[in-house]
Input
Amino acid sequence: MQRYFVPETNWGKDEVIIKADDAHHINRVMRLQAGDNIICNHPNGIAAICEITSLNNDSVQLVITEWLDESSELPIEVTIAQGLPKSDKFELVLQKGTELGATAFTPIQAERSVVVWDAKKAEKKLKRYSKIVKEASEQSHRTKIPQINGVTTIDKLIDESSVYDIKLFAYEEEAKTSEFQSFGTIISKMKIGDKVLVCIGPEGGFSEKEADQLKQHGFNSVRLGPRILRTETASLYVLASISYQFEELRCR
Output
């Protein structure tokens, strides 16, 4: 069944209304009709099977037929703070990171970020990015849509980092030494329910100054395996590793 995230204001006691782009998708793309079923996700993370009762170009009316007991969210709340990369690499991080269970994404204007966002560009980008994570959440049967925060700096990120239980950043220099702190060591210390902030640098990585800043404020520098990863690969490595540890190994 198709899955759609529906704003809280569109939920009634036993009914749901879908509007705008999703209504168009149901009508024109999926060509669903009255009597067909879809899954509707509430912003609080619960979902229900709903039957279409009527539809037109602007809205779809549904009745709730069954509430679902689903658990598809990563048991660790992971925020990916991504140094702004070139081209559309950040879109890849958002899409695949959403599929792998990220809770939130924060773009960082790092020292070595080639691209620079002004306020107008940031507003336009974030609108597109919101659509990407919504569609990726529907495709991967997430029960919540990841949050996309506004673009920030290392200084501001540090100031707002006290809410996290574990803070770390991938640092390529760690991969070049014989004495290093592995990501596996950090994962072994994580507990279900922890809030984790993972910082990934842009193409050139974090500068020495940024690395020192992060270390001074309680961020652990880690290596992500013995090879140097591309910036768009690093966050996916992190999320896949956490998923494997908490969703696969512990299911045995």
The mean pLDDT is 91. The chain has seven helices and eleven strands. The two ends are 29 Å apart (CA to CA).
